[in-house]
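Hallway conversation turned thread

IA: we were arguing at lunch whether anyone had actually written out Ferric reductase like transmembrane component end to end. Turns out nobody had. So, for the record, here is the sequence (208 residues) and right after it the structure tokens. Reply here if something looks off.
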Amino acid sequence: MTLPRAGMLAAAVILALYAITAAVVLAAPYDDPLHVIARLTALWGFLALAIAAILTPFLREIMKVFGRPFLAVHHIFAAVGLLLPTLHPVTLFIASMNPAIFVPVFSPWGRFWALAGRPALYLLYIAFAVVLLRKYIPKYWRWVHGLMYVVLLFAIVHGNLIGHDFENPVIWVLFNTLFALTIAAFVLKRWQKMQKKSGAGRGVGARG
């Protein structure tokens, strides 16, 4: 399917974000290629998850821009956002052969946040799995799927605290801005739901 002009522009912007991220990572001095892969998969995975979250308040607009239903576009980014963050610790494990990479650390408090990417990965799996099980828990799956915002919070804190690439101002500004836009999208989505409920309530009152 040929993308509409707006979709081509949006795709170009998204590809530019991935290209800028890759350029910053590859421009930094490095000795171990596996470390480079680990850094790229972490950053690109965050990009995908953030974009998937930012798109959520714009169901109608997504159809107009990309010429495809919202869920089709959303699920593409969600799938990439599941795969790449999984490859991040796997690559680090291959490089170090240290299974502790997969074990969350809950204390002390500062170390928990520095290594918050570890529990974030498991929360990501839960948030993804509940989508597959949504027909069995129709009333609650959205709440559990909302863990995706916790995943992004853990990931951005983890990156800011110990992420090598966050020392670069381009990465710092780009990824913290993406997280801020994610929070803005979350607030907008909640506001849309409140407006919808309010409108439905007024409609019922008028009919009564």
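OS: looked through it. The mean pLDDT is 90.
IA: good, adding that to the notes. DSSP finds nine helices and no strands in the chain.
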